[in-house]
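Hi again,

Forgot to attach this to my earlier email, sorry! This is the prediction with S-adenosyl-L-homocysteine bound. I've pasted everything inline since the attachment limit keeps bouncing my files.
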Amino acid sequence: MMTQSPNVLADADARAPLPSIRLYVAGPLGERGMVVTSGGQAHYLAHVMRRGIGDRLLVFNGADGEFLATIADLRRDHAVLTVGAPTRAQTAEPDLWLGFAPLKRAPTELMVQKATELGVAALFPVFTTRTNADRTKPERLAAIAVEAAEQCGRMTVPVVHTPRALNTLLAEWPPTRPLVACLERGSDIQPPRGMTAPRGLLVGPEGGFTDMELDAIRSHPFVLPVTLGPRLLRAETAAIVGLALLQAE
Ligand code: SAH
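Structure tokens for the complex follow:
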């Protein structure tokens, strides 16, 4: 007589395609655990993605890996998720930091989103003489980083540091961490490729660094000045290109 595994349903479930929704949640994650989401995430699930009780998604918290989860309750100000099987183990992100002068809102947000997709571990908004430092809200940038991390499948969310002056960034920079400084066109210094050690990239404001700032940047032994080619790039382009070069194998 044929015996039927009591686990057929569970097995079929495990072979189903992975859900497309992926949420970053705070707090510990483990199989058979429970997660309470933020109000924003509940709104996203219910009204943006039109999901309901019983629907599945992926969750990660930057520490315990990624898990399947099922919506157990969906309210206006939170959702309750029950955590199922693990889907991916936690992995480390490259140890890459980005220092950037905040730009206007849209290009700043683009830069934070792309930097997150390119694996940056920490973001440092930096005030320079020519930074139009108007309304840079670190919380807003952090929310963009979370969304980009959810979307691109990375296992951590970059840290968005509080904005600081360029001189403070340079003074506090760990001397053993190379800082690749994008110092505009016209020099013959080539961009490094595939640097793997802890490292950082620095990109200036729309108006460029002042001569005094360029001298200050160059005076630090951990700084590696680079050019990204003969054309004048917008700062957000320079950040994307610089990060891609540092990540290229
Ligand atoms: N000073 C320029 C504008 C700066 S571009 C002017 O107004 O003439 C903004 C930032 O992008 C610069 O500070 C630099 O960090 C980076 N950048 C732009 N083009 C670059 C290039 N070809 N090589 C290296 N960095 C560049």
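Confidence is low (pLDDT under 50) at residues 1-12. Residues 138-152 form the longest helix (15 residues).

That should be everything now.

G.
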